[in-house]
Specification:
With 206 residues, this protein is α/β, with parallel strands linked by helices. Helices cover 35% and strands 18% of the residues. α1 packs across α2 and α5 crosses α6. It is globular, with a radius of gyration of 16 Å.
Length: 206
């Protein structure tokens, strides 16, 4: 058993003890093909639920490089293959690593907002996701992680249908288009979140 499978198995076991986990749309993760999973980011446990929700592919998380300065986090992130990235200006070496993982049949896991947002808020997604998708010819799967993350509360993970990105492969896409492309994909994450938050996230009070 690989260390990755061991870690994900332990995380899955613990998550089911500490939370009421429901995963919808597991079949929307193709068993093959280049793929990027994008998700909203509300809590530090989001990467855990992304990993345990995808059972048929290995997820390689894209993590902000600042996290790799914490020794214990660096150890575990390296063991699961996480890739450190400058959120505002991904380097050539980062892109090469991403391309290598995609070619190996692994799936990238990205939180396009770049940092955690409030319970009812969503931040503008960063355009780096578009670059990774177009350069690796990867479709995008929207994932919505819905929870208050209080112990023993419900965590619903909604995996949407893959978004076909092939319309962009045969033409030159200007960098000025990157933001609009990732926003369109992230809008699906937001929609699925709002459509499924009933009974999990309390209504907002002003």
């Amino acid at each position: 058993m690989s260390f990755y499978k061991f870690v994900v198995g332990v995380l899955s076991f613990l998550s089911k003890i500490l939370y009421r986990v429901e995963i919808i749309g597991e079949d929307n993760i193709p068993s093959e093909g280049n793929l990027i999973v994008i998700a909203n980011h509300k809590h530090f446990l989001d990467p855990v639920f992304m990993l345990v929700a995808v059972k048929n592919r290995k997820i390689i998380p894209i993590a902000k490089q600042e996290l790799f300065s914490v020794p214990i986090l660096k150890f575990f992130m390296k063991k699961v293959g996480a890739i450190p990235v400058n959120r505002d200006n991904p380097s050539i070496s980062t892109f090469r690593t991403v391309l290598s993982e995609i070619k190996a049949g692994n799936v990238l896991g990205i939180f396009p907002e770049g940092t955690r947002a409030g319970t009812y808020d969503f931040l503008t997604p960063k355009s780096g996701t578009t670059m990774f998708s177009l350069k690796t010819k990867s479709d995008i799967v929207p994932m919505s992680i819905i929870s208050t993350f209080k112990l023993f509360s419900k965590v619903k993970v909604v995996i949407g249908e893959p978004i076909d990105m092939s319309q962009y492969y045969n033409r030159k896409v200007d960098k000025s288009e990157y933001q609009g492309i990732v926003q369109e994909c992230f809008d699906v994450v937001v929609k699925n979140y709002k459509d499924n938050m009933g009974g999990i996230i309390p209504e907002r009070t002003e």
